[in-house]
Every structure is written in C-alpha cells, then in structure tokens.
Amino acid sequence: MTDRSTPILQVENLQQHFPMGHGYTVKAVNGVSFEIYPGETYGLVGESGSGKTTIGRSIIRLYNPTGGRVRFLGQDISGKMSRGARAVLRKNMQMIFQDPMASLNPRKKVADIIGEGLDIQKRFSSRSEREEMIAAMLKKVGLSPEHAARYPHQFSGGQRQRVGIARALIMNPQLIIADECISALDVSIQAQVVNLMKDIQQETGCAYLFIAHDLSMVKYISDRIGVLHLGYLVESGTKEEIFSNPIHPYTRSLLSAIPRPNPEIEKHRRSVQYDYASSGIRYDQGTPQHVGGTHRVLGTREEVERWREK
Amino acid sequence: MSEEMKTILDIKDLDISFKTSAGTVHAIRGVNLNLCKGETVAIVGESGSGKSVTMKAAMGLLDSNAVINSGEILYTYTDESGQEQTADLLKMPKKQLRQQINGQRIAMVFQDPMTSLDPTMTIGKQIMEGMFLHKHMGKEEARKRALELLELVGIPDAEKRFRNYPHQLSGGMRQRVVIAIALSADPDILICDEPTTALDVTIQARILDLIMDIQKKMGLSVIYITHDLGVVAKVADYVDVMYAGKIVEVGNVNEIFFAPCHPYTWGLLSAMPDLDTDDERLFSIPGSPPNLLHEPKGDAFAARNQFALVIDEKAEPPMFQVSRTHWAATWLLHPDAPKVQPPPELEAMLARARKEAEKYL
Fold first, then answer.
1. Is the Cβ of A278 closer than 8 Å to some Cβ of chain B?
2. Could you report the predicted ipTM of this complex, rounded to two decimals?
3. Which fold would CATH assign to domain B1-38+61-103+239-361?
4. Which among B233, B283, B361 has the least Cβ separation from residue A261?
5. Strands A67-72 and A9-19
6. The model's pTM
C-alpha cells in the first residue's frame, strides 16, 4: 500500500450548478470539501436530491464542475484538464453504477465490456494477453472464464453487478466511485457484492467513494462518512464519530430513521422529524466547525454549540 | 392465530406455473397463507421467489401465460345487504372481479409511484376516478371525499395539490397520492407491493407510519410484499418467508426475528448488517435462487444451504410446527435430525437483538 498520509483525492469547495433556462439554476452541489486517503472507504449518504450522485459524477468528470477544485493523485482534474491529467484520471479512477442492466451495453459480450478500457488504453501486447487478463478478472469477481462469451441479459442481477465491478477493476484503479451499486440487488446478493468489494480492497489497496442511502450498509463498509443535504456537506467524520455522536439535526433525523431488524425496537421507535424550511437553519451561512478528531459540522459557532448541548 | 380473529383472506395450496418459450416455469408451488381482519402480514423473499405473483393471483392480475394448477383463494366479505359471503377469487369471472373486488374491496399500492400514476391527469381526478366507478358518487361528494383523503395521507394544502399533476410532486408525496387512491373506495384489504423501496429512509418511515395509522383508523387488513426486513420488523404481525415459490417459514414477528428456524431465514437475517455489526465479512447466502424452469428435486434451498442433510436432496420437507403460530419447512426440525446451531455471527446478532428488545418488554 502507498503512503497513507497524503490523500489521493482532494475535493475543495466543489460546486455544481445546472442552468435550467429562464434564468433558473439548480444548485445541486454547493461548496463541498472532503478528501479520500489511499485504501480507505469514504461513504456519502443523504436523501435523494441531496447531490451525492452529482458529486461522484462531477469528480469523475461526467459533468464539468461549476466551481471549486478537485485534485487527484497530484493532478488538478477540475476545469480544463491537461492531457496528462486526463490520462491519470481515466486510468486511475473508475465507476460502478447503480443499475447493472442499464450500465452494461446489451449488444456487447461480457469480454468486450470488461476489455473496453484495455482496448482504448492499449494495455496489452497481444490478443491472448487481453484474453488472459479478462479471464483472470472474471475469476477474481467470482465468475468463470466461460462467462466471457455471454451477453449481459444472460446473467442474474448479482452476476451483472460483478461484471460491472470487473469492468471497473481491470484498469487497476486507485479510486472506485461506487454509486448506489448495491441498491438494486436483493439482500442476500448485496452481502455477496459487499464482501467482494471488501476482498478486492484488501488485495489491491484501492479506495472507494461509496455513495448510498442504506445507512446500515454505509456504516458497515465505510471508514469515514459525509452526510449531505441539499447539496451541502452538513456533517463529516469517522463512522464512530457520526454514528455515536451525531450533532447536526439532519444527521440525527437521518440516523433515527434507519429501520432496525428488531420488531420490539421498531414498534417503539419514533423518528426525529427534520424540515429545512421550518428549522431556521441557513446552510449558506454556516461554515464547517471542527468539533474534535476529524468530526466537522456545518453551521455557525452558536448553532453548533446549541446542538452539542442537546 | 387466535380463534376470535376472523379470517378474511385464506389462500390454500396455490400452485401456478407460467408457460414461456423456454418451457414451463413452476413459479408458485403450493402456497398457504392466512390473513385475519385488522392484521398485518408481511411476505418476505428475494426477487423471483413468487411473492408478487401470489398477490397478483388474488387480484386477478396474472399475465395471460399463467396457468393456475390448483388451489383456492377464499375471500370473506360482507355484501351490500349485510350478508357474510365467501368467494373463491380464482373462480370468480374476470368481469365481476374487476367490478366488485379490485380497487373496491382489495386495493393495491405499487412500488414505483411514478409508473402507477397517470402523468396526464391531475391527482384529484385520479383519486376521484375510483369513487365514480365503484361508489357511483356525485362529483361534489367525490371531490369532498378526495380532499379528505389527501389530508388523511398528510398532504398539506390539499385544495391546491388537488389540481397538480404527478410530476409536480416529490416521490414521497406521490406515494401518498397512490395510497389515497387505494383508500378511495374504502377497501377491506390493502396490498402494499414494496411500497417504500423507491423512497428514502426518512420518507420511508413516514409512509409506513401513515399506513399503520390509517390501518388502525379504518380497520384495514394489510399485506406487505417486501424484501426489506427493517420494514417487516416495523409493521408486521405475522411474517411469511418465501423461497422458490413456497412458504418456508411462518410465524409471528417476534418468532421470526428472535428465534428463526429455517436456514434461509437465518441467511436473510444475517445478510443484513445491523448497526452493531463489525464482523470482517457479512454472512451471505452462497449462490443464487434456483431457476424454476427446472423443478428442484427435494428441498429447493438445499444447494445454497450449508446445513443441508442427505434427505434434503431426496424429499421436500413438510411444515414442522415449532409453536402455535410458528411453522418452518426444514428437515432440521425433524426429531431424527442432528441438532444444528445457527451460524455464530447470527447467534451473536440474535442475542443482541433479544437484549435490546428486553428494554421494551
């Protein structure tokens, strides 16, 4: 594993706005900053529309960020990218998408889907080497090399997601953005895919940006967590800091809503309601307040003091 | 199930197969299910286990290639003249089912509110539609009732929302509208097919609370179809665990969550991390569900079951009774079977769950 003290990804004040016409702009991400260290898993949670997917897509440059800076492996990958920065980004950052059926080309064989990155970057010297690499990758994600000649529709959901993972992994990336990659799968298959992701992390030392709304799974897989709401990072810290000492009212409401597989607890659980409009909190006026360790909460000094007392 | 509770829906030995170009898929292989008045039953299982098909059969919504091999779905209701009637929904003519049962007595809430609402109609109109058809209400009366329903499901500003189209509402609001539509004709039974899968956790909790509140107010019987055990723990009185077209374990909610007997239920419970799980690996059920194109021999779960016995490959296990309300179909419960303990990770999790639950008992 490489040096663990310098982050591989630094996101500073990232903004992503989408002009909708008629002078109206959707401000999906408003000044989000975080960093990811080699070999760790950073979880991004929040409700739908909070901007978690947009952040992932802005980082990997499926969108052009409106403002802020993103540094990846020492290269600036926001704004206009140099040829070198682009090569570093495309080689070392990969993405696993939510719906494997929608993200795999139905007219291509699995071998060609997995090998596409290799083809583009010409990472092999002969056809047999390419085939070997693909077969090895299939084995690694728990499929057999015979599957290479099949089409995506011939697989079950869990197997398809494995193909999606193989496609991302074959480039040997240092950062994988996993955008809701287990949400579409059955519970028993989710566990298989999560175990696979953990195994791969141990083997290759890659880092994950794990985007999900299932908080118990995020807690299980992540080292550090960022909580997003309305495009603002309202709270961030290690998973212990967030789960045992949530400070921001939105985080508290989110954690209180986690369904627990325990009927007695569920019957007595009352979730904390949180409504931004009536809460009197203005996200644009808060600044990240440091509350110990790596734990940061968005708000004014007085707000954070007040929340901590509760 | 207690004697004084009146059974309202009784599914007996339901067996359904689908004719496809690849052959016959035996999707439902003898399902028994019992719903009492005012009660909530949850059907849990992976996709393809047949939980939706079972409920679609009750609604007469099966695809045209479905063949009902045997079984009956007995529905007990009070007709207009106050007489108690029992009818077999499978034998009822389609027309009668559409006019008298669907939407009126048995209503359904589907998974994705965006696809179950008509995008070209205002939500007010969609809520009133059922009342015109089933209750023959006048326009004014229906409008009044629709506004009441919108308030009941917690939509603020009902007057204004009444004229909105589905795309103007958020996902949670849309699902509330779907629930309002389902309730528009005062049904006896509400079938919720993955009602919160498409929603966020915060909104999910609110929608479930809402359904539970309404259930109490209107004395509804509710069937949940879901794969989310958190949802089941919150809402269910009884749980039916389904695997490969069969119910493999039935019990009340505490029995299923604190003392499960079937290895498949063990797998389901331990595949879902609770907030205290810190194991290196999640326990996962190996493999994937069987393809019902090829009828499994013996126990359908045997191939994925680390506790499988020799007999599992030869004969299908019957339902063994564990307690008055708790049954499971696994040979492990046979008196001659070796004593098998659940996996240690699960044991630890169950112990934690029982301990946490004690605080409330």
1. no
2. 0.77
3. Rossmann fold (3.40.50)
4. B233
5. antiparallel
6. 0.84
